[in-house]
Each structure stands twice: as structure tokens, then as C-alpha cells.
Amino acid sequence: MKTLLKTLSIALLLISFSGFASPLSDFKEKGIIGEQNDGYIGLVKQDNAAAKLVAEINAKRRQKYQQLAQQNQVPLASIAKLAADKAKQKTKPGQYVQNAAGDWVKK
């Protein structure tokens, strides 16, 4: 499990910073994008450019989660949950995350 968490952390970093880092960071800093409970990012506020970025990053995350789930013979939902927890830990104070009820809150 520890190896899986490390692999997942690396995967999230690669997805987050593979050409999307600056726009993603900017949108997170502006409170437009946040980390969801399901391991994906979501729109806190409606924005067309951010919506496109969310779709692109979530597609890459989904692909990586599926790969990790198959490699480790665990359900996709388990990988996504681990990713959500890890992403929330790495979210900077003042940025948005979803709470247990699914509401957007500042960290």
C-alpha cells in the first residue's frame, strides 16, 4: 500500500504539472478550480477556460487511476479515494477542496 501511495503521489504530480501547472495553479489561486472528494478537480465557479482545463486534467487522472487500479488489482474507486486524500493534503491554504458533504470550502 505504501508503494501504491508513492506511485499515486508521483502520478498526481506528473498530471498536475505536465503542461497544465501554471494555468491550474492560477485557477486554484483565484478560487475557480478545487480538489473534489472523488480524486478529480472541479469548478468552484463557472469559467469556460477553466472548464476545458478541468476536462483535460480529469481525463489524464482517470487514465492514470485506471492504470494503477489494474496494476495493483484494486478497484478504481479505491485509487481515486487515495488520490483525493493525497491531493487535499497538498492543496495550499486558501484554495478550495470539497468537504465530506461535497460543499466547496477553503482549506
How would you describe this structure to a colleague?
The protein is an alpha+beta fold. The chain has one domain (2-98). It is 61% helix and 11% strand. The protein is built from four helices and four strands. It has helices spanning 2-17, 21-29, 48-72, 76-90, and strands spanning 33-35, 41-43, 96-98, 104-106. It has a four-stranded mixed sheet. A hairpin with a 5-residue loop joins β1 and β2 (41-43). α1 (2-17) packs antiparallel against α3 (48-72) and α1 (2-17) packs across α4. The longest helix has 25 residues, at 48-72. It is globular. The termini are far apart.
What can be said about this structure in brief?
This protein has 107 residues and is an alpha+beta fold. The chain has helices at 2-17, 21-29, 48-72, 76-90, and strands at 33-35, 41-43, 96-98, 104-106.
